């Protein structure tokens, strides 16, 4: 599977890898998608960042968003080897209305989605969750915990987001590898249980 004798630098896949899965990392504007994929990717992530200008202020609401000067204009891409046999290809997909066309391509072949949610801007996640459901993708919710936000109980978030009891909900800090990895693992486990149930 694409491995080379000189693959010790981690760029090429190990021969033992048997499953490659496409996973979407989605969420509303400025929820931390690019940060998450940058934290998790074992290869230099592909980014499509452009500077934001005043002209876009009415489209992308910067209220409550700190120190952000760029936005993703197409996608993020990264790769993470989760176990010796399983590699995930992560596709960061913008949640804003104007990117709906991108979803047609991004959802093709995807096994599931990790939906990043800002607990302080829950309403902005509704259209994103709707889109993921519309495309029939199984998903897990990862609440990206920004420093100064108070922790909200899981049942409160579950109710506010109108989640099914089986939908995994975890908390992460998109800048932190361990909690971000745990979020991906929660999604993969969920996808696995769904596959097992169908078998
Ligand atoms: N405190 C804190 N800041 C974060 C966290 N995740 C992201 N940020 C910051 O939040 C801002 C937005 O993060 P991005 O990764 O650009 O978010 P995005 O979802 O890719 O944004 P768009 O592509 O513009 O929609 C950046 O300034 C990050 O440094 C987090 O977990 N905690
Ligand atoms: Mg981004």
TrEMBL record:
- GO molecular function terms attached to this record: GTP binding; hydrolase activity
* UniProt keywords, alphabetically: GTP-binding, Hydrolase, Nucleotide-binding
Q: Which SUPFAM superfamilies match?
A: P-loop containing nucleoside triphosphate hydrolases
Identify the Pfam families for this entry.
ATP_bind_1 (PF03029)
Instruction: Give the family, as the similarity comment puts it.
Output: Belongs to the GPN-loop GTPase family.
Q: What is this protein called?
A: ATP/GTP-binding protein
């Amino acid at each position: 599977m694409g491995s080379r004798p000189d693959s010790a630098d981690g760029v090429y896949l190990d021969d033992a890898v048997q499953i490659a899965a496409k996973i979407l990392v989605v969420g509303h504007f400025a929820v931390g998608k690019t940060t998450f994929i940058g934290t998790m990717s074992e290869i230099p992530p592909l980014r499509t960042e452009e500077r934001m200008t005043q002209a876009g202020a009415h489209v992308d609401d910067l209220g409550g968003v700190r120190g952000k000067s760029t936005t993703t204009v197409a996608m993020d891409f990264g790769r993470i080897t989760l176990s010796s046999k399983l590699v995930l290809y992560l596709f960061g997909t913008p949640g804003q209305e104007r990117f709906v066309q991108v979803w047609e391509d991004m959802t093709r072949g995807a096994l599931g989605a990790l939906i990043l949610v800002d607990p302080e801007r829950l309403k902005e996640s509704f259209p994103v969750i709707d889109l993921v459901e519309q495309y029939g993708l199984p998903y897990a919710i990862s609440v990206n915990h920004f420093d100064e936000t108070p922790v909200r109980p899981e049942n409160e978030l579950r109710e506010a987001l109108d989640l099914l009891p089986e939908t995994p909900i975890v908390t992460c800090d998109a800048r932190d590898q361990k909690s971000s990895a745990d979020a991906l693992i929660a999604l993969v486990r969920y996808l696995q249980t769904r596959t097992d149930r169908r078998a």
